[in-house]
Amino acid sequence: MTGNVVLWDFDGTLAFRDGMWRGCLVEALTEVTPGHGVTRADLAPGLRDGFPWHRPETGHPALNTPEDWWDALHPLFVKAYVDAGVAAEPAARAARGVRARYTDATRWTVFPDTAAALAELSAAGWRHVVVSNHVPELDGLLGDLGLAGHFATVVNSSLIGWEKPNRRIFETALDLAGRPERVWMVGDNPVADIAGAQALGIPALLVDPARDGLRAAVRRILDGDVDSMRTPWPPTTGTGLPENSPEGL
Questions:
Q1: pLDDT digits (tens, 9 = 90+) for 29-58
Q2: Is residue 246 a part of any domain in this protein?
Q3: Looking at residue 3, what is its pLDDT?
Q4: Are residues 69 and 126 in the same domain?
Q5: What digits encode the pLDDT tens for the residues 66-77?
Q6: What is the 8-class DSSP label of residue 101?
Q7: Neighbours of 71 (CB within 10 A)
């Protein structure tokens, strides 16, 4: 694959999961102990650290199967529950249900103009690659959401062992894309997506599809508007880990 390529983040850019990780853990706990009274806010402190993307400088090639990846997160989920006041036994049972809940495509929503944006760029000769810090089942989610056909390949951190903004995940994407003549990164995270891409000289566009949609991004890519797509660095506010991405809560 050569020519023109757009690298896309997934969660928070193309689609989102209602409730994110906190909501997912609440749902899994409700299945085990209805009426538990634990809220998303109760779980937030326990999820602020411990995911692979919280240590992007460190690779995790040993977590090279979906089972290994989810097994490594099981203690994090249990601790988040226990810290929120859940007893150890139901916490462990609920933690085992998080995987099925999080990968349930019916809990995911594609942003309204995602398909149209991808199609318009494809019609103009651009190819698409997903570059995402995500769960191992991302390919299946893309298929269930009707998006898989838009993408030439998917570069998933949980399967290659490196998280954005580490340069290795972007280098992998560029290699798989055949080192394209023109390339852009589109994402909702100023650290993982924007800074990571720009560190390799890739122009990047920070988007908020829930508020603004993707039309402006499409027009700027088609116009080759590099300067207006640059994002000031470092960001002036926030942690760089917005909630509407898997790196959030």
A1: 999 999 999 999 999 999 999 999 999 999
A2: no
A3: 83
A4: no
A5: 999 999 999 999
A6: H
A7: 12
Helix (H, G, I), strand (E, B) or coil at 146: coil
Structure tokens at 143: 């298929």
Q: Given this model, what pLDDT does residue 232 score?
A: 40
Q: Which residues of the chain have pLDDT under 70?
A: 1-2, 225-249
* Cβ 152 vs Cβ 183: under 8 Å: no
Amino acid at 27: E
The backbone torsions φ and ψ at residue 59, rounded to the nearest 5 degrees and listed phi first, read -75, 165
Q: Which of 124, 135, 133 is nearest to 8 (CA)?
A: 133
Tracing tokens 């191992």 back to the chain, one arrives at: 136
Query: What pLDDT does 1 receive?
Result: 54
- The residue whose two tokens read 């590099």 is 226
Task: Indicate whether 84 belongs to any domain.
Answer: yes
Q: What SS3 state is found at 243?
A: coil
CA distance 29 to 180: 46
Bond before 234 cis per omega within 30 degrees: yes
Q: Which amino acid is at 103?
A: T
pTM: 0.90
Q: Is the dihedral of CA 221, 178, 153, 10 positive or negative?
A: negative
CATH (domain of 151): 3.40.50.1000
The range of the structural domain enclosing residue 121 comes to 4-16+107-229
Q: Residues 98, 123: one domain? A: no
Task: Report the run of H or E that residue 91 belongs to, with start and end.
Answer: helix 88-96
35 by Cβ neighbours in 10 Å (0-12 / 13-18 / 19+) ranks as: exposed
Helix (H, G, I), strand (E, B) or coil at 166: coil
Omega of the bond prior to 34 within 30 degrees of 0, cis? no
